[in-house]
């Protein structure tokens, strides 16, 4: 959840208007319907052959253009439209394949409503595929979606590149598998049975994976390459190379040993963190200097077994390393379920002991005939499989459906490593205390929409779910998935409630993964739209939508009364600050918190439980590595450096400078505040104000063009020439080494050429941004702009002696700290007074917006960065990659979001039931690209101690006010044996042992609330029931001790 823009970006047009298309998949005499919209043959490709980056931008950063194009030519068949089938269909339609056909011959039953979110009570008795078709069509106007309920003949199956089977009998699976394997059609079999899930993949005899992990290729700068049969490459300045054994690298910019630059990719053998070998270089020249080694992604060919063979000789992908013995057991158990269903025409009854005993007999029978016999069957596990197999849970469908849809995308695109070949997953920790439910309780709600869920947990758990009051923070991608799962689970659908807040509005780029939103919702509030969408899925769900940011400014809304009434909080946020804030609120109010996040194919889940676990804030990722100032200003060596430089240029020139000028005009104390800034900042600020208001203020668009031309000259010509004047190309260091070597790339200046498209891109973008900043009318008329450029007089530049250029980070910091007092005084005198300028100046600081292609923001960033890259011979970046880096975009894909939400909601089942054993909960990390699944027990809350009192972050002192400060100090001395040496509230120091005696004496006689008001100089808001104090204390031996914080209860006001 991020800050909502003030208005809807200009470019929010929807894909082409709806039109019916019935000739995409030829019809037969059976019921076959095709509904959808498409730009080109029902694919994500527009008529021009380009991918709609406005819609698919976040997914493109996960998959790339090539993989998306391969997906755009893929026709997919998904069989079975119960909960799992519709989850897979939803995810794959959002992803942008060419067409999806949904197949089902069954009719909608009440039990389907537990997890099939596109069916309703109005669908009962209708064909499942037909009933949910219109909802599926709305998900993506570029994908042809059709429904079919005829026979799955070989002729019909041959039309598809991928076939997915859910809710399909084993006999039918084997028949279809034999055909698809022979015809090189990819097959995925997926099923859920209560708290158990299964996936099988067969992508044929020869399947090529073009990129096994999706990570950006690693590169490293080189210090030396030996001339050997097994040449050793050493990295520059103790920089870790990041390669692994078996990687391949290509070399560029190597001097001396130039032959290696044109060699085929060479295989890496890691020798250490800073060295690796690459094979024979004895026939090459001697290495002199320089060079970059860059990882090359090599394709990998895989062979899959058909289903019949894989059943007998299975390969398993482990889903949970604490359950490594389960996949073979479940492999047998799922086959036994198929046998039971074939024999009786239905699955075992919920928590029916006779059916479970029969399933065990069938499992033993199958174990006796298989080629990979198990020595011992886990009878308890297989009995539980029988007990819950008739159940259908939305979170389980989300988990298995997210994984299966990603496998489907791998089959279409060749991107990422597929599952080989069996995957089993269970979440038995979700079962009620004792691990069992009575058969009567399991069947008590069989005639309700929650019947399939109650079959697993029983009616009592369903009642608890309905009474929950939960706060969902964020209605973006994860938030939409959570809401869907909450609605299907019946969370808050009794006498409970779901509260959701998000202040964002819906943008077009959201539609690819925030599946509750449609093109006609663009510009509307996310929270209200999402709430209305899930109410349509389950009219009984009680939901209240807010549009508030969570933070100190909304604590009058989300106050003590609000939090104390909650059962828990679920975060669906996209920034760390808001996560930390909500985590602290949950710790204070002692409420469980479900935390999660995604990054492309990676996802994580953390459960925070009062008095049991650490909190989200207890451990954090290390901060991002910042780029040194001197590297940005003078010595870039990677496109990331030039893009950050361009982004800084945008923020400084079009945002910060205008902000400073506006403050100068409006704030009478601006000069006073500015002069208090440290180092050289006062001079920099006042210089920028003078430039904006006086020296460089344009009167027309022609002035903006002239400004852009002179800026080009200064940035890409004059400054580079000055740099080379200070440090010529042949400069050597004090040790005799070339100055321009290693990470320092020797630049060259650019001469402006109006015929060069990149040069003109810069001029057009910079001039239009300048015009927008001053409220002037811009233009993209190249003829007009070129004519103005021809008349611009560019001053002659000669490099000067005595100009200092920082070479090291320390020098750059010193440069920032120094100040020119004479120059500062002159500017103060030269600046016209705000009253003199009056209303002459219209200024509009520009807030960077990466997703609006009409505002010139990204045009400027791309051009400015690539021109600087040209200065330093750095390979340029296209607009797509530039937007990712400069816009700090988080890659996202619907499959990971669905999976992560499913995992969160499995933890929610445990919280609702009050599970109080740490080992029952699971923190999770997944990477669908590899694929990898890692689950672990949450970290317990660390214990601390003062005297004999143990405490954790969940503990505190509860003190009932009102009392004077001296009474407060005495209370802790007498009751707890603690001498308070310092006392603070927020950022305010209320008391300390080193405080001036007159001030201390005065405060000791004041009430605690009075001290807070006086020191903070703010009133205590009416909604505040308690104050939080932090203590520094000594024990009776005079030693510092860690103690909990204090919750000081105020008397009623």
TrEMBL record:
One of its GO terms (cellular component) is SUMO activating enzyme complex. GO terms for biological process: protein sumoylation. The active site is at residue 630. SUPFAM superfamilies: Activating enzymes of the ubiquitin-like proteins. Its EC number is 6.2.1.45. InterPro entries: E1_4HB (IPR032420), E1_FCCH (IPR032418), E1_FCCH_sf (IPR042302), ThiF/MoeB/HesA (IPR045886), ThiF_NAD_FAD-bd (IPR000594), Ub-activating_enz_E1_C (IPR018965), Ub-E1_IAD_1 (IPR042449), UBA_E1_C_sf (IPR038252). Residues 1-46 are annotated as: Disordered. It catalyses: ATP + ubiquitin + [E1 ubiquitin-activating enzyme]-L-cysteine = AMP + diphosphate + S-ubiquitinyl-[E1 ubiquitin-activating enzyme]-L-cysteine. Residues 921-1046 form the Ubiquitin-activating enzyme E1 C-terminal domain. Keywords: ATP-binding, Ligase, Nucleotide-binding, Ubl conjugation pathway. Pfam families: E1_4HB (PF16191), E1_FCCH (PF16190), E1_UFD (PF09358), ThiF (PF00899), UBA_E1_SCCH (PF10585). The keyword Cytoplasm does not apply. One of its GO terms (molecular function) is SUMO activating enzyme activity. Signal peptide: none annotated. This is E1 ubiquitin-activating enzyme. It comes from Ornithodoros turicata.
